[in-house]
Design a protein that fits this description.
Pfam families: HTH_1, LysR_substrate. The chain is an alpha/beta fold and about 300 residues long. The protein contains 11 helices and 11 strands.
């Protein structure tokens, strides 16, 4: 049994004519007869009385008719609901982003993207890199924009920008009076760092290990860039933070950039997706938009 046979059955019942039903569906009369026979075989009943001069439904046909109409109606509702859902999904973009990208880079990007796509709804979920990638794995976000160290080979990735981490301190800190500071001397200071799972913290750890160094003093662990900035501004310690995240404070003079000798804390920004060829149209458009922008 298929839905097309049920639709034809209803048309035959209403027109009382195999010929008219065939014309309505642009098929031959034998094709209509064949589909009705298949439907009768499926239910193991006779649906039409063909002995009468005028075609009419049998008792079984009359019983089946309202159910057939309901099946058609339910199918039409289901089809429309699915189309509505698809349309909504195609105009709903859920982005997962790590803290630096989500808080300092994406607001302007989203604003520009929405100007080109006025009818879309964008949701932004911000967290550290591992938590954002976990949401991608669970299909809770359509696309992830992250930085730091992760298993790139597991995903479809594209590097869309680079970022530098710089050493910052309060404008009152004595280190700003020096033309340059050795990394070994810098690490004697009280440090304020992100949580252990932070991608930014992993990059700093890797760079320090490259110099065979580690933090010499105890450090304060805080969960967000904004909180770290406030703590550094209050002269509670120094930190490594993304340059993009402190440009305003540097311009205002409330934070200072410590010139550290032989320090390379650059990192890549990645747009990350599951490795699949099936993607919503709005996701493909967002990918192209990101890839077409110059973030330097």
């Amino acid at each position: 049994m298929n839905l097309e046979s049920i639709k034809i059955f209803c048309d035959v019942a209403e027109t009382k004519s195999f010929t008219q039903a065939a014309q309505n569906y642009f098929i031959s009369q034998p094709a209509v007869t064949k589909q009705m026979k298949q439907l009768e075989n499926y239910y193991n009943v006779t649906l039409f009385d063909r002995n009468e001069r005028k075609l009419k439904l049998t008792k079984a046909g009359e019983t089946f008719y309202p159910f057939a109409k309901e099946l058609i109606r339910i199918n039409e509702i289901a089809f429309q609901e699915i189309q509505n859902e698809l349309n909504e999904q195609n105009h709903r973009l859920v982005i997962g982003a790590s803290f630096t990208i989500g808080e300092y880079l994406l607001p302007q990007v989203i604003s520009e993207f929405k100007k080109q796509n006025t009818n879309i709804q964008i949701e932004l979920s911000i967290g550290n890199t591992p938590s954002v990638l976990e949401k991608l794995n669970l299909n809770e976000v359509d696309v992830a924009l992250v930085e730091g160290v992760f298993q790139i080979e597991k995903y479809d990735v594209y590097k869309f920008a680079e970022d530098n981490l710089i050493a910052i301190c309060s404008s009152q800190n004595k280190l700003l009076k020096q033309d340059s500071v050795e990394l070994s001397d810098l690490l004697k200071e009280q440090f304020i760092v992100r949580e252990k799972m932070s991608g930014m913290r992993k990059i700093i750890k890797n760079e320090l290990e490259r110099h065979n160094m580690t933090y010499a003093q105890s450090f304060m662990e805080l969960g967000s860039i904004q909180t770290i900035k406030s703590a550094v501004e209050a002269n509670l310690g120094i930190s490594f933070l993304p340059k993009i995240a402190v440009e305003r404070e540097l311009a205002l003079g409330v934070l200072g950039n410590i010139n550290v000798t032989n320090l390379n804390l650059s990192r890549d920004f990645w747009i990350v997706q599951k490795d699949t060829e099936f993607r919503k149209q709005i996701v493909r458009q967002f990918n192209d938009f990101i890839k077409g922008k110059n973030f330097n």
